[in-house]
Write a structure and sequence with these properties.
Blueprint (H helix, E strand, L loop, with lengths): L10 H7 L3 H17 L1 H12 L9 H15 L1 H6 L7 H22 E5 L8 E4 L20 E4 L5 E6 L21
Antiparallel strand pairs: 1-4, 2-3
Length: 183
């Protein structure tokens, strides 16, 4: 066993690292018998074992940069922060068209986006054992194991290329749109 300090980026790891050996013995027996007697618990334990990769801590910088681009080109934040109840549907529709065009521009300029599945929506498909559960979500009445047969209700989207601009070291990504002062 390593004497290195616990990884402070993983609080769950820190919490579990301090369980003593004597405490783990009855815990192991309890877990063993619960796994044998409770199929739902066994499935959750199995899922934990299969997904043993540590979670990545996402940096907010790229998300904030994208949000700033959507504000700059589509006025997305302005649109979502506005109270729409006093506007006519035609005015909201006209504003939504501008936001939509700007969002499309940002996505085209900064991403290459392709469908996860090539089939048309509504197509009947079969998902064999080993299908990529990170890219395909099963919905409806999900029972048993693959192969699964169903109707493709959404093709999904995958970013195959990201082209966000480089940021200067002094750039404050939390400023999504500068306040404007007219002189």
């Amino acid at each position: 066993m390593s004497n290195s300090p616990p990884d402070s980026n993983h609080p769950q790891q820190n919490k579990h690292q301090h369980v003593s050996f004597l405490r783990r013995i009855p815990l192991a027996f309890c877990a063993l018998f619960r796994i044998l007697s409770n199929p739902g618990f066994a499935a959750r334990v199995d899922a934990l074992r299969q997904n043993n990769a540590p979670l990545k801590q996402a940096s907010p910088d790229a998300a904030l940069q994208l949000l700033a681009l959507l504000q700059r080109d589509a006025r997305l934040i302005d649109f979502t922060q506005e109270t729409l109840s006093s506007y006519a549907d035609a005015d909201i529709g006209a504003a939504a068209r501008v936001v939509h065009e700007g969002c499309c521009k940002v996505l085209r300029e900064h991403f290459t986006i392709t469908p996860v599945r090539a089939e048309a929506e509504g197509s009947r498909i079969t998902l064999n054992d080993g299908f990529d559960a990170r890219a395909i979500r099963l919905t409806g009445h999900v029972i048993g194991q693959a192969p699964f047969k169903g109707s493709l209700s959404h093709r999904g989207w995958r970013a195959t290329e990201v082209r966000l601009p480089q940021l200067a070291e002094s750039h404050d990504t939390t400023v999504l749109a500068q306040a404007e002062v007219e002189l």
